[in-house]
Amino acid sequence: MFRVLDVAAAVPTSPLDPGTVLDGAPEAGSRALAAVAGVEVGVWEMSPGTATDVEVDEVFVVLSGSATVTFEDGELVELGPGSVVRLRAGEHTTWVVHETLRKIYVA
């Protein structure tokens, strides 16, 4: 038997820590969908704005929206629906969300 995971359902968001916000008033949040073999699968969403982050080990697929992620080493990644990205624990990133970004993650 299988269970359908609803990735379209609302994700509760709240304002980001002001110490991480560089522009705008972005909000973010996540909702766990399942635990599989010790890893979490969930949906994450961030509204437009710019914020910094320190990443965890994660693979994600963008479902909707657009953003630019800049890594500490200067690498820049443009995100849109269908983008698949691997993040490594401890990486410092800057997220510029142009249109509310929704992703499904495995972490």
From TrEMBL:
Pfam families: Cupin_3. InterPro entries: RmlC-like_jellyroll, RmlC_Cupin_sf, UGlyAH_Cupin_dom. Residues 39-105 form the (S)-ureidoglycine aminohydrolase cupin domain. Gene3D superfamilies: Jelly Rolls (2.60.120.10). It comes from the Bacteria. This is DUF861 domain-containing protein.
